[in-house]
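Render this sequence as a predicted structure.
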Amino acid sequence: MILKGNQRGGAKQLALHLLNDRDNDHIELHSIDGFVADDLTGALREMYAISRATNCRQFMFSLSLSPPKDAIVVVQDFEYAIDQAMEKLGLAGQPRVILFHEKNARRHCHAVISRIDVEEMKGINLPFYKTRLTELSRELYLSHGWDLPKGLSDKSLANPMNFGLTEWQEAQRAKRDAREIKTALKQCWAQSDGSQAFEAALKQKGFWLGRGDQRGFVALDWKGNIYSLSRWLDVKRKKLKTRLGDPERHRSIEEAKSDIAARLAESHNTLLAEIDAEFTRRMEPLEAQRRRLQDRHRQEREELRAAQQERRERKARKRSERLRKGLLGLWDWMTGRQRKTLAFNRAELEAVHERDQQERLRLITEQRRAYALLLEKREKAGKWQERQLAELQVLAAELNQLPTHSGHLRATECSRNGSEAILEHQ
């Protein structure tokens, strides 16, 4: 069943929503645990009153449980799901209220759980609660044998010919569940009345039909795994042969693998193109940022050069003014004052030169630091592309689905060279 939950406050508003008999055909208060009150409104008010002694503003966790449309779910199944959800979220043992709604002949359940730990007098933290509820939803669908909704299905159980880059990455990360594989194969069997229909249904799920080594029927997935249909479908070989015909008329495992390889080669080429396109998309703003940074740095260096030049000229005029002319200059030369002035001017000139050098060094250091941050982002984009290409190569090698043909290698090499060329353009 689908589980949705959220942290919230507003006890009065939630009570009015849950007791709304205009939008629901039937409302049944099932149980109240851990409260003095014996009604929904009173229980939620107790949650609010206890939360006032804490800093927690979202003191309730509201959970809804919706089974498939035509499923018959007993009360104990709802209670089990609520118990499991509370356990996974760290709310086990907390006060709760459970009630049922019915609308248009569909029945679903609501649970409101207190988040306040009365021993610690603080709200219980619920990290990743959406992810944990999604995992539990999937587990409940599989354990009841219900057809998984699209959002909960295993991404690896899909036709690889339709994979884009995102779908391929999801399929790579997906952990294949034997129960879901069995459900998928049984669905294909149930909806087909002959060999062609069954084979078409299998391909929609990412499987190929083949002949096993012992004259039985097998299914192969796009990763090369082999499944004996008699065992996975719980169907005897005789019944399989009646519907699918003579096994000798079907491809062998090696022929099926060859067919998978040929079809996936085109998909891999598409993925390579998507990786290149995504890499270009990631690099474009970084390249624009590099150009802006380069222009700004050049301007900063020019402004510093001009400012230092103007300051040097001003200081030079002052040094020149210290050397008196005419009779006063002759007097300074005779008394030794001119020698001291010249020495002072030389020292000042060296100090000015040293200061200019230090200012240029500080500016260059700051600019290099700013550029290093940009370079790190550019290198991450390059490494992302390399990882994607490496995963494609590893997958192809592991499955023997893609021979090392030159076209594939040229595309990979070209992609890699393109990333290196962009990264080296500094």
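Summary. Residues 83 and 92 are 7 Å apart (CA to CA). The first strand starts at residue 2 and ends at 8.
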